[in-house]
């Protein structure tokens, strides 16, 4: 009989072992090798069979074994040392404490998914892994983040294969009591309740679980509580499952419920209230609406004033240029849930609706776009690599009216990865032994002096570990697909620990092109079976359950990999998760990535491979576009100008095969007298020395603190001071400026000295500007100048503020001197933009006034 409900009975640990429970309940174990060693020594066999999950370990370990450990002085000393180390980690000052700056007292970080450890399967892909790495790194650096997310009762699905290679999904129910979580309770012991009013008098309730990620608390909302009706109980059933309305409810719980959970947690624990709120992708965007509601209710602000106060302290990160990754809801649905006085009390629904409106030229006015709302609710917005920043400025530039794409206020911070999570222990040990300064975060050049034989020895160990793990997984998968043991003898010989190993593992949306390598199956077969320089490929990835196309791609790969002639050289390993990723990024010599440029916003798996001494073979997209330097791996040429997708695939696949056979394999098998591939190892060392410090999440987090969190905290304080005087002032000023702007014009521009200009001279510019009802202090009048291209556009313009020289009836004369600092085609223009000390930049309002016709010395050649 099948159980209708599942629960986990926790072991009662003997008194001397109680400390184990504390260790288990802090997820720092997931990146702390000494603690993992301690768990392993509780019962090494069981440790492997519970897949290194310490909660399961303590649940299943034999009480007699525990009784013995409770008397084992050596074990108890190690337990004490591990606890001491944890306490020290949790309390000693770290980077943020010594950074000294006026950083925020706390930052709330909202994400729909978190990848912290395989034992907490609450992630589907890169977004969640990044969120997990962000929290762990915040903990390591002492950055006071509180994470907020949802606890999905079935997590994301686990994947297996049917006999004919079709993806099958399973949704094993998780029991929060069997996870390293504790329920957040009021002082009287009652579980904290967060509630959101729904239409027709319904209510969505949730309890709140606390996961401790080192120093960082992570609050996970869970709607599976008895006071909910059955539909409400199911809101947090699955990650990215269900239809539109289900999704909306999840996002309301995350955003609105998440803010309420933080308020409860801070009240109970005494944790300082967040000054900055970080919206990690649009899904969490409703947090801004809840904060507007709070400001209106608690401080008597108007909607517009509250909006200014909230925006100032909100950071929004966009994570994808792929339309399917951006949530868009029908406007009626938003009207249904936010109308009346349901979810957000007195917040006017028409104002909510206008925040998510796609007001740009090709926008769809019938939808509510969560990314667009995110950009309107956050004064600071970023993409996740330099290229993705550019792509996002193009994509969303329409929200900022007349500004050139370059000036659209979307910046970028390139993602990074948490080394302690992703770097194999042997590599960590090698670094600690050979280049100890790296452990303190500097001296990466020391890598260049590490003996190549040492690196090669460790790489061999990691490759072999991958091969053994892959055989185990392959055997399990074939059995599950119905094969008998007798048919599987070949698996003992599948893959070879000395063959060049290429890895390809990621989610399977179409833009990642899982099957590009299959474009010419004979060519691929020849690479795999090359008698001199064979290649083996390890593949993994899950398709979204609703993505039939993605499942077909997996089936294509599986069918090819099933073929008898190549099955020892190409394998598909089901159920890609963090545990499999850890073995793959460490064991593969080459990490391959061939997305359709520029759709990969950043990509992080290649960074993990690089830190383990792997080399990247990738389309120049995301992070690789930024940091490929010609010597740290290979760039697959991209035909991204081509409009014919089939032809594009063909060209890019051909380039891929050629790179592998003529460059990658040649270099890998080019050995010296000692059997070492010298040129290869040079490349590995160069990669580690130069990419190492860049791809670390510590670099990323410091960038967030300096470029976004601290400025956002300053802005938020400026808004809040003196009873929100700043917010009131800015809202009133914006209202006045927006209303008066149609009356602002550059009436006339003239210059002296442009007849035969020479480099080094100055050009005097005079403009007459009509300010209409605005005052001179409301605007910035500036000359914009620089080199012009063939279409008379100013390329990377410089700006010079012009000085007002009086005037009458709102018409004011401005003047300034432009330095002619370079030869060649040169041009300038004059513009007026709003100016206020509480704006983050000139483009914030999307308002600009330009001269009626282009002016300036277009193509006036400087000599
Ligand atoms: C790192 C990682 C990802 C993200 O990889 P991309 O390169 O961004 O596609 C996805 N899933 C898992 C399990 C990972 O470890």
From TrEMBL:
<dbReference type="InterPro" id="IPR011834">
    <property type="entry name" value="Agluc_phsphrylas"/>
</dbReference>
<keyword id="KW-0119">Carbohydrate metabolism</keyword>
<dbReference type="GO" id="GO:0030170">
    <property type="term" value="F:pyridoxal phosphate binding"/>
</dbReference>
<feature type="domain" description="DUF3417">
    <location>
        <begin position="13"/>
        <end position="120"/>
    </location>
</feature>
<keyword id="KW-0808">Transferase</keyword>
<dbReference type="InterPro" id="IPR000811">
    <property type="entry name" value="Glyco_trans_35"/>
</dbReference>
<dbReference type="InterPro" id="IPR024517">
    <property type="entry name" value="Glycogen_phosphorylase_DUF3417"/>
</dbReference>
<dbReference type="InterPro" id="IPR035090">
    <property type="entry name" value="Pyridoxal_P_attach_site"/>
</dbReference>
<keyword id="KW-0328">Glycosyltransferase</keyword>
<keyword id="KW-0021">Allosteric enzyme</keyword>
<keyword id="KW-0663">Pyridoxal phosphate</keyword>
<protein>
    <recommendedName>
        <fullName>glycogen phosphorylase</fullName>
        <ecNumber>2.4.1.1</ecNumber>
    </recommendedName>
</protein>
<dbReference type="Pfam" id="PF00343">
    <property type="entry name" value="Phosphorylase"/>
</dbReference>
<feature type="modified residue" description="N6-(pyridoxal phosphate)lysine">
    <location>
        <position position="608"/>
    </location>
</feature>
<dbReference type="GO" id="GO:0008184">
    <property type="term" value="F:glycogen phosphorylase activity"/>
</dbReference>
<dbReference type="Pfam" id="PF11897">
    <property type="entry name" value="DUF3417"/>
</dbReference>
<dbReference type="GO" id="GO:0005975">
    <property type="term" value="P:carbohydrate metabolic process"/>
</dbReference>
<comment type="function">
    <text>Phosphorylase is an important allosteric enzyme in carbohydrate metabolism. Enzymes from different sources differ in their regulatory mechanisms and in their natural substrates. However, all known phosphorylases share catalytic and structural properties.</text>
</comment>
<dbReference type="InterPro" id="IPR052182">
    <property type="entry name" value="Glycogen/Maltodextrin_Phosph"/>
</dbReference>
<comment type="similarity">
    <text>Belongs to the glycogen phosphorylase family.</text>
</comment>
């Amino acid at each position: 009989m099948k159980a209708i409900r599942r629960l986990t009975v926790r072991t009662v640990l003997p008194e001397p072992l109680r400390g184990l429970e504390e260790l288990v309940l802090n997820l720092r174990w997931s990146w702390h090798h000494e603690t993992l060693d301690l768990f392993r020594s509780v019962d090494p066999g069981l440790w492997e069979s519970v897949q290194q999950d310490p909660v399961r370990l303590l649940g299943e370990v034999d009480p007699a074994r525990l009784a013995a450990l409770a008397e084992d002085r050596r074990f108890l000393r190690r337990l004490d040392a591990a606890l001491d180390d944890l306490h020290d980690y949790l309390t000693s000052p770290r980077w943020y404490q010594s950074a000294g700056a006026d950083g925020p007292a706390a930052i709330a970080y909202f994400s729909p998914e978190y990848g912290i450890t395989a034992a907490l399967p609450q992630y589907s892909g890169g977004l969640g892994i990044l969120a997990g790495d962000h929290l762990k790194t915040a903990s390591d650096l002492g950055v006071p983040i509180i994470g907020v997310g949802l606890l999905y009762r079935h997590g994301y699905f686990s994947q297996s294969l049917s006999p004919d290679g079709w993806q099958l999904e399973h949704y094993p129910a998780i029991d929060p009591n069997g996870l390293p979580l504790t329920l957040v309770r009021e002082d009287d012991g009652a579980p904290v309740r967060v509630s959101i009013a729904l239409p027709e008098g319904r209510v969505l309730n949730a309890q709140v679980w606390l996961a401790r990620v080192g120093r960082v608390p992570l609050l996970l909302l869970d709607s599976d509580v008895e006071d909910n009706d059955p539909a409400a109980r199911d809101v947090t059933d699955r990650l990215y499952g269900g239809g539109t309305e289900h999704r909306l409810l999840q996002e309301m719980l995350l955003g609105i419920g998440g803010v309420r959970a933080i308020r409860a947690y801070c009240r109970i624990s005494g944790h300082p209230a967040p000054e900055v709120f970080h919206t990690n992708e649009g899904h969490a965007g409703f947090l801004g609406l809840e904060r507007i509601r709070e400001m209106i209710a608690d401080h008597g602000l108007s909607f517009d004033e509250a909006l200014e106060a909230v925006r100032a302290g909100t950071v929004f990160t966009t994570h994808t240029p792929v339309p399917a990754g951006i949530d868009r809801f029908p406007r009626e649905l938003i009207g249904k849930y936010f109308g009346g006085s349901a979810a957000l009390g007195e917040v006017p629904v028409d104002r909510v609706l206008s925040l998510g409106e796609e007001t740009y030229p090709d926008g769809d006015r019938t939808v509510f776009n969560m990314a667009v709302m995110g950009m309107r609710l956050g004064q600071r917005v970023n993409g996740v690599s330099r290229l993705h920043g550019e792509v996002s400025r193009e994509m969303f530039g329409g929200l900022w009216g007349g500004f050139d794409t370059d000036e659209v206020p979307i910046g970028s911070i390139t993602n990074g990865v948490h080394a302690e999570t992703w770097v194999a222990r042997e590599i960590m040990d090698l670094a600690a032994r050979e280049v100890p300064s790296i452990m303190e975060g500097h001296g990466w050049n020391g890598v260049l002096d590490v003996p190549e034989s040492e690196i090669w020895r460790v790489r061999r160990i990691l490759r072999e570990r991958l091969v053994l793990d892959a055989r185990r997984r392959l055997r399990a998968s074939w059995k599950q697909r119905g094969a008998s043991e007798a048919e599987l003898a070949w698996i003992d010989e599948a893959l070879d620990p000395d063959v060049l190993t290429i890895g390809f593992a990621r989610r399977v949306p179409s833009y990642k092109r899982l099957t590009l390598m299959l474009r010419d199956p004979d060519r691929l077969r020849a690479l795999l079976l090359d008698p001199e320089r064979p290649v083996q490929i390890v593949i993994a990835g899950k398709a979204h359950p609703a993505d039939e196309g993605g499942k077909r791609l997996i089936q294509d790969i599986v069918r090819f990999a099933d073929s008898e002639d190549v099955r020892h050289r190409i394998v598909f390993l089901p159920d890609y998760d963090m545990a499999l990723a850890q073995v793959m990024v460490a064991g593969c010599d080459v990490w391959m990535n061939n997305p359709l440029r520029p759709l990969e916003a950043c990509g992080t798996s290649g960074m993990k491979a690089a830190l383990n001494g792997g080399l990247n073979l990738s389309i120049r997209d995301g992070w690789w576009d930024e940091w490929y330097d010609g010597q740290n791996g290979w760039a697959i040429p991209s035909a991204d100008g081509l409009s014919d997708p089939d032809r594009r695939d063909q060209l890019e696949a051909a380039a891929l095969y050629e790179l592998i056979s003529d460059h990658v394999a040649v270099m890998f098998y080019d050995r010296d007298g000692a059997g070492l591939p010298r040129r290869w190892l040079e490349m590995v060392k160069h990669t580690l020395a130069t990419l190492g410090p860049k791809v670390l999440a510590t670099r990323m987090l410091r960038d967030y603190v300096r470029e976004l969190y601290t400025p956002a905290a300053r802005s938020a304080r400026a808004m809040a001071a003196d009873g929100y005087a700043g917010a009131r002032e800015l809202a009133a000023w914006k209202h006045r400026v927006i209303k008066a702007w149609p009356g602002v014009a550059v009436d006339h521009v003239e210059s002296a000295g442009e007849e035969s200009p020479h480099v080094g001279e100055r050009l005097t510019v005079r403009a007459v500007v009509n300010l209409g009802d605005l005052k001179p202090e409301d605007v910035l009048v500036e000359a914009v100048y620089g080199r012009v291209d063939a279409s008379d556009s100013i390329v990377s313009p410089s700006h010079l503020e012009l000085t007002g020289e009086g005037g009458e009836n709102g018409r004011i004369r401005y003047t300034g001197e432009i330095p002619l600092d370079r030869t060649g085609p040169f041009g300038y223009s004059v513009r007026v933009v709003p100016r206020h000390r509480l704006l983050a930049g000139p483009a914030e309002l999307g308002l600009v006034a330009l001269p009626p016709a282009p002016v300036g010395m277009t193509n006036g050649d400087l000599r």
